[in-house]
Amino acid sequence: MMTDAISTPTSPEISTRHLEYLVAAIRHDTWAEGAASLGVTPSALSQGIAELERRLGLPLFERRGRRRVLDERASPVVDYADRVLAATADLARWTERRRDGGVGRLRVGLIDVAAVDYFPAAIRGFRAEHPELDLHLRVAPTASLLEGLNTGELDVAVMVEPVTPRTDVAYEIVMTEELAVYGPPEIEPRPPSGWGPWLTFPSGSHTRRLILRALGDLGASTDVVAESHQPDVLRSMVGLGMGWTVLPTVQADGGDRPLTRHGDGPLLKRRLVAARRADALDDPDRDRLVAAIRAAAP
Q1: pLDDT digits (tens, 9 = 90+) for 249-276
Q2: Whose CA is closest to 105, among 239, 297, 295, 285?
């Protein structure tokens, strides 16, 4: 791990180790867990944080009872730490790939519909064509994938295009998909004002925001009675008559028991994008995988 000081004539001397201490402290439930993740003692972690605060000249944590929580004014320092550590990890992987003759590692995130319905064949084909590449996959919601990009845990992620795109992330459009309204079995067609209550994605979900906005535009209820990140769970609850949902048509129209669709056509369309950090180093393996995924898009 690189620990050389990062400094300029107008900035404090801060090492990557100091930044690792900060990120570990806020990414774990306790400082003991954060220290263990770095292989140091809690005392060493505490001393490292204190030294970082001394060099910055400002407190990063405040005490609330026996707990230490991040000071709300310290969020720019955390963002800086994430960027520096991610860029440092990028450089280490780039150097390793060049030193080992092109053999490298690629960490890919996908939302469930991308991993299960749209691109499993493309990923299998890419893995077969590049057996020397250490390919790691993570399936998670868009918000979690964005966090993985931000912390450097992912090199690329296929996700829902955010409602408000971030300037530190570069997006490449992969495809557009349709989402439709589905009601419980044996429900007669009815106008949007009679739709609901809703079974949908959890609060904070990019897709949930799109869905509730589209339902509101039609004058439909937006009363949410159950949540799940898993489309299969939402589909099962609709089948049991517990409420209505909005899902990608590829997930709801197929299978042995397709759901009953309501409305004329799709409720909305959303774009799936391949996202990477805007400051990430060039990565031919990443670019080849994104090209394979785009080629396989329906």
Answers
A1: 999 998 788 999 999 899 999 999 999 9
A2: 285
Whether the per-residue pLDDT at 7 is higher than 60: the answer is no
Give residue 267's identity as a one-letter amino acid code.
L
User: Which sign, positive or negative, has the C-alpha torsion 288, 290, 293, 298?
Assistant: negative
| 3-state DSSP assignment of residue 154 | coil
Nearest Cα residue to 239 out of 183, 195, 189: 183
**How big is the chain by its Cα radius of gyration, in Å?**
23
Residue 171 class from Cβ within 10 Å (0-12 exposed, 13-18 middle, 19+ buried)?
A: middle
- Check pLDDT > 70 for residue 234: yes
Computed over every residue of the chain, the mean pLDDT equals: 87
In the chain the domains, ranked by start, together with CATH numbers, are 5-82 (1.10.10.10), 104-170+274-296 (3.40.190.10), 176-271 (3.40.190.290)
pTM score, two decimals? 0.71
Query: Torsion over CA of 211, 213, 214 and 217, rounded to 10 degrees?
Result: 160
Phi, psi of 183 (to 5 degrees): -115, 170
What is the torsional sign of CA 222, 225, 230, 236?
negative
- Contact by Cβ (8 Å): 251, 231: yes
